[in-house]
Amino acid sequence: MKLDDHYRGLKAHMSSLRVHDHVCLAYNDREQQVTAIAHYLKAGLDLGEKCLYVSDKDTSEFVLKVLKDTGIDVDNLVLAGTIAVARPEEVYLRKGYFDPEDVIVLARELIADATEKGYKGLRCACDMTWAIAANVTYKVLLDYESKVNCLFKEKIVSICQFNTNLFDIQTIDALMKTHPVAIYGGSVVHNQQFVDPGDYPLSHEQTV
After folding, report:
1. Which residues, 6+ apart, have CB-to-CB distance to 201 below 8 Å?
2. What pLDDT digit, counting tens, does each position of 173-208 carry?
3. Which DSSP helix (H) or strand (E) runs through 184?
4. For residue 176, what pLDDT is reported?
5. Do residues 122 and 156 lie in contact, with contact meaning Cβ atoms separated by under 8 Å?
6. How confident is the model over 97-129, as pLDDT tens digits?
C-alpha cells in the first residue's frame, strides 16, 4: 500500500508540471524512472506539447512501451514528430564533447520549431548518465545548470534525471539544491533553499 501511495504522488506531480518548470529527478531504480517519465510525457501530450526524450536506446524504448500500454498511439505520434527520442550524442555531445552553449542553441531551435508547428511548448526529459562516460566534471555540470536556466522563460518544461547509484552523493546534493523542485526517492521536494547554480560553491574539479 505504501508503494502504491508513493507512486500515486509521484504520478500526480509529473502530471502537474507546466512550461517554465525545471526539475531535478534523482531516481534509484528503473521502475521509478520510467514511471515518472511516462506520466510526465503523457501529461505533455494531453496539453498539446511536443515531447522529447533524451536517453539510451533501451530506456527510450521501454518508456515508449509504457506509453503504448496506456493506450497512446505512440507509433503515429513518433511519425508525426509529436514524440521524439534522441541519443545524448545528438543533443549534448554534437561537437564530440560537451559544450553547454551549443546545447542551449539547440534547445532554442527546438523550442522555436515546436511552437512554429503549433505545439503549446516543448517538454523534455533528459537522462544525464551520459555525463559519466563523457568525463564531465562536477564544476562543468553545475555551470551547465546555471546557464540552462535562461531557457525557462520560454515555452519549455524539462526534467534532468540522475541515477543515484551512479552519481556521487555530493553531486546529487548540489544538483538538487540548484533546482527549485527536486524529486528524490519518489518524494517531491519544493526546495526552500534554492540556490542559483552560479552561486553554488565549487570546492573541486572532480568528474561526476
Report:
1. none
2. 888 877 778 888 667 777 666 655 555 444 444 555
3. strand 181-184
4. 80
5. yes
6. 999 999 999 999 999 999 999 999 999 999 999
φ, ψ for residue 57, nearest 5 deg: -60, -45
- Return d(Cα 167, Cα 162) in angstroms, integer: 7
Write the single-letter amino acid at 181.
Answer: V
Q: Residue holding cell 553547454?
A: 100
Query: What number of residues does the chain have?
Result: 208
- DSSP track, 108-129: HHHHHHHHHTT-S-EEEEEETT
CA angle centred on 179, ends 194 and 98, rounded to 5°: 135
Q: How far apart are CA 46 and CA 54, in angstroms?
A: 20
Q: Are strands 187-190 and 181-184 parallel, antiparallel or unpaired?
A: antiparallel
Domains and CATH numbers, the chain: 2-194 (3.40.50.300)
Higher pLDDT, 61 or 8: 61
Task: Tell me how crowded residue 170 is: count the other CB atoms within 10 A of its CB.
Answer: 13
Task: Give the model's pLDDT for residue 208.
Answer: 59
Q: Which parts of the chain fold into alpha helices (H)?
A: 2-16, 30-46, 57-69, 74-80, 88-91, 100-116, 130-133, 138-148, 169-177
105 residue type, one letter: V
